[in-house]
């Protein structure tokens, strides 16, 4: 008689991690259901012209942002791939990773510093328009900010796709004397076309769930998306019924987008450090070289402009006075503490799911199908992509408002939501290293009876130290710059740097906001650079 398998603490830890995710997401849905059942007539009344207008604008701005980000990215990626020895090419690719490290509110300040009513380009734009420049609030500001974030990401993804073209094809094209147009039609375009649906879908999802950009640059009811409308319905109008309807519609739209992305095989995490290796391509003529150089220069100026404006505007602020303010010091300490706890929780939950998935896979027979629990540990963290942070926050806001002071639980909600939202990134950093370490040490640990804490400390930790540090740094950067949850639960007693920055913008203290943006951007950038360096060292 075959004995039952020995209990594995890794599986227990994975079940606890799944339960934590289920409680967080399930609690949000419970809050929505309870609120909808409490006032069904109010929920039905929320289906009005305002709802349709907000939903239409959400889809429209996401569609335009995707088109304006992806189409130029195709051309820029091809230009970079055709010139592997382009001066400063490596620096340009590194610069294209910076927008992924910047908090959205910092990028919004950079866009305003350039194109706002009092921005650096305000005089030029006013002279071109023949009157006073009104600023870039509204749809135009949202589009510029979204393109700033997504053009570099799409460019790197397309560049990776071009890097998958076999060298033999380029060698054969060179031997046949193939020109530029045939090479594009027969070699480059098939690779780009295969990547196009996934890249476009990823950018569309990022734009449809954009909250901070629309909140800071939307410019009124005419330029409001579903997530911003949820925030306004709870914080300003206190209309729970409308918030429930808006939240359910946002979940439905996001679910459809994620389902399509899954079918297309898109990378929903959006890796910021894609390997891009130079190749030898066909010779390019002078005209094409000039055009490609112009495309690269325009993209470089567009991406570098808001970042440069953020630095200059921040240096113009009275940084000494800001550093001495009690509110700034308190917000800095709050941000550091909450982001540290969030990152610690994120890597803990991620490691638990990774270890449980590996343990279940080893128990499963080669020909048998994956169990439901193994499926959950493999894809459970990805489920959070369907529910944006503002939606989770709205559900818990509605659930807790009749039980306790919702603003008193702000630290707990910020830590929990940001930790779960960062899990896909942490898993991406840790899982390959854990699987490789398990492949080397699994039989030895089983033979010696090493498990649990002793295994983690003595066997796994040397291999996982750097990947865990990578996931921790990236999760901390994401939490540090997040505004979604704290925008709902923040108050005068609980303020983070992004929340304080938004408050200074709302009170027209733009110089202070610029100084805070510079501080926040530099800290997040240092964390992501550290994560990148640790990741490279781990791979080495």
UniProtKB/TrEMBL annotation:
InterPro entries: MetI-like, MetI-like_sf, ThiP_ABC_transpt
Record keywords, A-Z: Cell inner membrane, Cell membrane, Membrane, Repeat, Transmembrane, Transmembrane helix, Transport
Residue ranges of every copy of the ABC transmembrane type-1 domain listed in the record: 55-257, 345-535
UniProt xrefs under PROSITE patterns: ABC_TM1
KW Cytoplasm (keyword) present: no
Keyword Membrane carried by entry: yes
Gene Ontology CC entries for this record: plasma membrane
Listed name of the protein: Thiamine transport system permease protein ThiP
Top-rank lineage group of the source organism: Bacteria
Lineage, broadest ranks: Bacteria, Pseudomonadati, Pseudomonadota, Alphaproteobacteria, Hyphomicrobiales
Gene Ontology MF annotations: transmembrane transporter activity
Species assigned in the record: Rhizobium loti
SUPFAM superfamilies: MetI-like
Locations listed in the record: Cell inner membrane; Cell membrane
Record-linked PANTHER family: MOLYBDENUM TRANSPORT SYSTEM PERMEASE PROTEIN MODB, THIAMINE TRANSPORT SYSTEM PERMEASE PROTEIN THIP
